[in-house]
Amino acid sequence: EYGFFNGEFITLDTAKVQLEDRGYQFGDGIYEATRVYNGKCFALERHLARCRRSLRELRIPITYMDEELTAIHYDLIQKSGIQNGVIYFQITRATAPRTHYFPDQVIPNLSMTIRESEPNRKWQEDGIACMLAEDIRWLRCDIKSLNLLGNVLAKQAAHEKGLQGAIQFRKDTDLITEGSSSNFFIVKDGLIWTHPTDNLILKGVTRSILLEEVIPQLGYTVVEKAFTPEFALSAAEAFVTSTSLEVTPVVNIDGHTIGNGTPGKITQSLLQGYRELVQKECYN
Ligand code: PLP
User: Fold this and answer.
1) Which CATH architecture describes the domain 2-116?
2) Is the ipTM beyond the 0.95 threshold?
3) Which of 38, 115, 121, 233 shows a CA-CA span of 20 to 30 A to 88?
4) What average pLDDT does this structure show over 11-20?
């Protein structure tokens, strides 16, 4: 467990939070989480591009170049000796006396951690059970901001029911948006459905890789259109995607079996295709 704060490498037990960091007091910041396979960061360029976009949308000055952030990722891998894990980083607007409006003349804070972890192969093989949860989040879910209370409450509700995930839906439209920390997909009549990338979902890196690289190669077709929970319950297959889950089948939603209750064929081939990309990028 190794970390980095504003230019210094640290061990987590010695790291100190600045009390007036606006990330701490307002959630005024953004984050990214990138998977490390075999000592290499997978799809780091996509994560850094999304980070820049999140910063721009929140009008946080960009003070770290991609080359610098990349170098710190690799320094963390090297110093920690971790070959397979997740690197988390967050950039907050500043440390400044607490007022809601932006402080002048401040420099953002960057903190990073690396932790050992592997994708949950059992979940990928057996599939997971999820619940439906009302999406109570704000209307800029496209920004990967530190404000995660809606996601946290949804995930906790699932956890308390002994389920592995929560699939969120907007009550006003009765349309599914995404998981609590993942994008959600279904397969119906041979087509792959997922919510379009608007302000209501995060444009997942894993989602983008599936849509741009894996799905075209396998010859499947995607419908980027929102659908209701009822529509999802009658799907042949369902799955969630994220950096940590990769492609994980969903075999039960709110007690309803999806398809025949085992991971679907298309879902499995997408996971396989994704793993091949990881293999190509990180193991050669
Ligand atoms: N949607 C939400 C709300 C998330 O928090 C995440 C990841 O943390 C995702 C989707 C998946 O994004 P990615 O594939 O970039 O990890």
Assistant:
1) 2-Layer Sandwich (3.30)
2) yes
3) 121
4) 85
